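Saturday, quiet lab. Running sequence design on the C-alpha cells for the scaffold JK sent over.
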C-alpha cells in the first residue's frame, strides 16, 4: 500500500493543502527541493498555487506557498499540518 501525505498550511481563514507521494515526502524531509503547482480556489476565486519545499530562493524557510503572484505562506514544514493518507 502506497502512502501519500497531505501537507496543509493556513492561508487567511482557510487551510490549503497539497498532496505528496511517499517518495516526494521522503525527498522533502531529507532536504530535497520540490515544487508543486496546481489550480485551486480561495474565497470564491480560482488561483494557481505553488508550493516550494526547501527552495534555494527562500533558504530561511523549508515551505513557501504562493498563489498567482501573491504570497500565501512562508514558514517551515514543521509549521504545517501533515496527515498521512493510505491509498
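Result came back. Writing it out in full:
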Amino acid at each position: 500500500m502506497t502512502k501519500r501525505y497531505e501537507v496543509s498550511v493556513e492561508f487567511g481563514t482557510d487551510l490549503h493543502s497539497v498532496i505528496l507521494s511517499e517518495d516526494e515526502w521522503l525527498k522533502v524531509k531529507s532536504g530535497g527541493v520540490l515544487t508543486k503547482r496546481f489550480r485551486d480556489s480561495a474565497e470564491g476565486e480560482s488561483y494557481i498555487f505553488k508550493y516550494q519545499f526547501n527552495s534555494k530562493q527562500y533558504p530561511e524557510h523549508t515551505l513557501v506557498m504562493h498563489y498567482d503572484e501573491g504570497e500565501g505562506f512562508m514558514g517551515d514544514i514543521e509549521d504545517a499540518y501533515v496527515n498521512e493518507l493510505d491509498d
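Notes for JK: The CA atoms of residues 65 and 83 lie 18 Å apart. The mean pLDDT is 90. Ask whether to fix the surface positions before the next round.
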